[in-house]
Write a structure and sequence with these properties.
alpha/beta; 8 strands; 10 helices; 294 residues
């Protein structure tokens, strides 16, 4: 019984250490998420115009629901494509997406009239009216990962945004593959090529790329990190809840074992007392028998 109780207590201690570690990681994730959420709410890191639209001007709109957010908010990009898509979008990552051109005009007037900065607007009604590239005319390159517009996800209403900004971009794994494809396309082709590392090849021959020593997180990277942190925190919450149940079980088991040990100890003590008493009686009986036989 003592061995079982010792093993139970050891298991409870290991479980407590695991819970403490998970709670520490959870607190760090919550702190990071809160910092990123504050950046999002305040528009920190944005140009003055988009920041003013999302903070100062949003509440004054005649139809606030017509403001959908930034391009970086409406396009979902998997982690491996972050550098490529952010390189293609450039400043357009913070372009403001609205439903109607009238909303764009209203916001432009406020920005101009109040000197709040400049912003680019993408009105869905105008984008739908325009023509955008489609995958039907995509060149066939075996090494091509796909057309950028097809590699991002979004709500159906934002398809025109993806087509307008990413519809003419082919994604490749390496710079060598992108350069070979760009050469085969020829200078007259409208297709741009981008690598997973973020090197962008333009039809006119220009190539952009590289990185800074201290890389600033892009808007898409920030959003992806927030989604990843939220998923991890949800998973940890479930795990902590399961561990709490297991901890409660082990604690209850340890308490029961302690009670059982005490009960057995009491019973053994009672048996010992009874044995001593019995031995005393036996001695008396034996003495009496001896006297009687004399």
């Amino acid at each position: 019984l003592k061995g079982l109780q010792a093993r139970t207590e050891a298991a409870a201690e290991r479980l407590a250490a695991q819970v403490a570690e998970l709670r520490g990681r959870q607190e760090k994730a919550q702190s990071r998420f809160a910092a990123l959420e504050e950046l999002r709410q305040t528009g920190e890191g944005l140009s003055p115009g988009p920041r003013a639209v999302l903070t100062t001007l949003r509440g004054a709109l005649a139809d606030a629901a017509d403001l959908h957010g930034l391009v970086a908010d409406v396009l979902r990009v998997e982690a491996r494509l972050e550098a490529a898509i952010e390189a293609v979008l450039g400043p357009c990552a913070e372009a403001v997406v609205v439903g109607k051109s009238g909303t764009a005009a209203e916001l432009l007037g406020r920005l101009r009239g109040e000197g709040l900065g400049r912003a680019t607007f993408l009105a869905l009604d105008r984008l739908r009216a325009g023509t955008h590239p489609t995958s039907a005319g995509e060149p066939a390159f075996p090494e091509c990962l796909g057309r950028a517009a097809d590699l991002v996800s979004h709500e159906p209403e934002f398809r025109p945004v993806a087509e307008a900004l990413l519809g003419d971009v082919l994604v490749f794994d390496t710079l060598e593959e992108a350069e070979a494809a760009r050469a085969r396309l020829g200078i007259a082709s409208r297709w741009r090529c981008v690598t997973l590392a973020g090197e962008l090849l333009e039809p006119n021959g220009a190539v952009s790329g590289g990185r800074e020593r201290t890389e600033r997180q892009g808007l898409i990277g920030r959003r992806n990190e927030m989604e990843r942190l939220a998923a991890e925190m949800d998973e940890r919450r479930l795990l902590l809840a399961a561990l709490a149940e297991k901890s409660a079980f082990l604690e209850k088991r340890a308490q029961q074992l302690a009670r059982d040990e005490q009960r057995l100890s009491d019973e053994l003590a009672a048996l010992a007392a009874t044995s001593t008493e019995t031995k005393g009686i036996l001695v008396v009986v034996q003495r009496d028998e001896a006297r009687a036989s004399e």
